[in-house]
């Protein structure tokens, strides 16, 4: 793989807004793309994984999900964003980031820019 790839849910307006923020404000050499348009087989990902959380597949083959994927993306950016990514990998922050990420994922239809199409089916909610 020649470039790292950050994959998000393109059917979710909130997720798309977040990806647009990344593209406008976080300089990265990584591809940022909706999983619905990604070659998941080539990336070694499944639809189920992508439906659960954002995904990172590094050019070196390293994979990460959720806040760990966000930390990897930030680590592939400018100094300020790399510092933020390092902070997100700091064990106490990482421990808090996962529950926060899961809460946002479950409630993304209620987030700014979210729509009913963003809602996670009730059967998949914790």
TrEMBL record:
It comes from the Bacteria. InterPro entries: DCC1-like. One of its GO terms (molecular function) is protein-disulfide reductase activity. This is Predicted thiol-disulfide oxidoreductase YuxK, DCC family. The lineage of its organism: Bacteria, Bacillati, Actinomycetota, Actinomycetes, Micromonosporales.
């Amino acid at each position: 793989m020649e470039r790292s790839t950050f994959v998000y849910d393109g059917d979710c307006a909130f997720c798309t807004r977040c990806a647009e923020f990344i593209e406008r404000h976080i300089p990265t050499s990584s591809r940022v793309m909706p999983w619905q348009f990604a070659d998941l087989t080539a990336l070694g990902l499944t639809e189920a994984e992508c439906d659960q959380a954002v995904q990172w597949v590094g050019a070196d083959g390293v994979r990460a999900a959720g806040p760990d994927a966000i930390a990897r993306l930030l680590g592939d950016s400018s100094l300020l964003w790399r510092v933020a990514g390092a902070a997100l990998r700091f064990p106490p922050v990482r421990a808090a980031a996962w529950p926060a990420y899961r809460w946002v994922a479950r409630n993304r239809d209620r987030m700014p820019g979210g729509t009913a199409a963003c809602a996670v089916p009730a059967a998949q909610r914790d």
